[in-house]
C-alpha cells in the first residue's frame, strides 16, 4: 500500500448479477477506508490505497467471467480484469497519450 490518500473508483459488471455482489461490497469494506457506493456497479474509496492492491483483492471476490476496472484518479493509474483484448489495448495505447 502507499502512504498517500488517494481517490479510487471501482467499477464492475457481473456476468450473472443474480449471484449478488455481497462479496464485492465486503472486499471494499475490508480495506477499512472511507467509501461510498455511487451506483449499483461503482464504488468510490478514499484512503491509503493503490489501484493494483484494490484490484487484486476485489477481483478475488469475483468470478472469472465478470469484469472489473479500478481507477486511481489521484495517480492517474488503472487496472482492469477480464476486459476484451482490443479494449485493453485501446486503454494501454491511450491512457497517457
Give the helix proportion (percent range): 25-40%
Q: Give the averaged pLDDT, no decimals.
A: 93
The proportion of residues in beta strands is 25-35%
Q: Could you say what the CATH architecture is?
A: 2-Layer Sandwich
What spatial form do the alpha-carbon principal axes imply?
flat
* CATH topology value: Alpha-Beta Plaits
Q: Supply the CATH class.
A: Alpha Beta
Give the helices and strands as they follow along the chain: EHEEHEEH
What count of structural domains? 1
Tell me about this structure:
The chain is α+β, with helices and mostly antiparallel strands and 97 residues long. The chain has one domain: Alpha-Beta Plaits (2-Layer Sandwich), CATH 3.30.70. The chain is 30% helix and 34% strand. The protein contains 3 helices and 5 strands. A 5-stranded antiparallel β-sheet has the order 2-3-1-4-5, with helices on one face. Helix 1 runs antiparallel to helix 2. The N and C termini lie far apart (27 Å). The mean pLDDT is 93.
